[in-house]
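Example record

The entry below shows one chain as it appears in the dataset: sequence first, then C-alpha cells.
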Amino acid sequence: MDSQIADKAAQASAKSPADPAQAGHAHGSLPRNPGMDLDLDWALGIEANTSAIERRCASLPGRRSVKKDHQAAWLLKAISCIDLTTLAGDDTEARVARLCAKARQPVRADILAALGMEEITTGAVCVYHDMIPAAVRALQGTDIPVAAVSTGFPAGLSPFHLRVEEIRESVRAGAREIDIVISRRHVLSGNWQALYDEMKTFRAACGEAHVKAILATGELGTLRNVARASMICMMAGADFIKTSTGKESVNATLPVSLVMIRAIRDYFDRTGFHVGYKPAGGISKAKDALVYLSLMKEELGHRWLQPDLFRFGASSLLGDIERQLEHHVTGAYSAGYRHPMA
C-alpha cells in the first residue's frame, strides 16, 4: 500500500500529452464554456441508436474492473469528484454542518494513513438555498465550493422570474455552483428555442458561479431527446450537464450517461470548450462509481476525470467507498454505521 496508492490515485487522472483534449490547459484553468448561437440544424441532426448504446454499456462492468491497489486509487479519485448532498425536507443547519465536516475529511484518518494519503476532500457540498449560509460557514478555510439547487427544484414549475431570482439569491448567499432544472415540457414539445432562451437566462443570472443544467433524463422520453437537450444546454452556456434531480423514478443510467458524454465530446470537437458531466441519483455503490469513471476515461480521456469536469451527485456513495477502502486496508468489512455521513 503506502505511497504507491497515492501515486496511482494521481495517475488515475494525470494528464497525458498524447490526449489532444488536454493540451494547453492545467487542472482548474480551463476557460468557461461561453455558449454559442443556437444551431438547430446541428442539434436536430443528432440521433441515438438505442440498441447500440445499450450493448456498449452492457459490456462495461465486466470488461473494466480494477483490483487491489488500483481499485483503492480509483476509489480515492471518485471521492474527490463527489458532490456530497443533502436535499431533505427536514434538513437543519446542524445536519449541514456535520455533512460539511464529512466533506472536509471524507475518509477516517487511520485509513488514509494506511493508504499513504495525507488529505482528500469531496468536490463540493450540495444543499437547498436556505442551507447555503450554514454550509459556507462550515467550509470556511477550505476550497470546497457550495453548490445550491435552484429554479424551483425539483420540478422547475415555479414562475420564471422567481426561478431567475432564486439563482441570484443563492449566488449572493455564497453558492459558487448552481444546479438548475430545465423545463421538461420544452423538450417534450420540441420547443428548442424556449429551452435555449431559458438556459441562457439562467446562465446569465449565475454570473461568476458555474451552472449545472439538470435535464431530468428519466422524464425526457427518449435517448434522442436527452442528446438534443444536452446539446442545446451546452449551446446556451452550461458549464456542466447533469442527469437527474434524484427525485425522479429513473435517475442516472449508463445509456443516458453515454449519450450525454458523447454530446459533450461532439461539442468539444466543434467548439474547443470543455463541459463537465454529473451523473446523479441512484449511484450508491463503489463498484458503480468505478464503472462511471471507466466510461468517462474511455469516452473523454483523462482530463475529464478531474472534479472541475466530473462530479457524482450522491449522498450514500461515500459511505460505501469508505467501507471498501477499510476492507482494502484491513481485509474485513466493517458495519455501515462506522462510516456515517453526518
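Notes for this example: The two ends are 29 Å apart (CA to CA). The beta strands are 82-85, 124-127, 146-149, 177-181, 210-214, 240-242, 276-278, 312-314.
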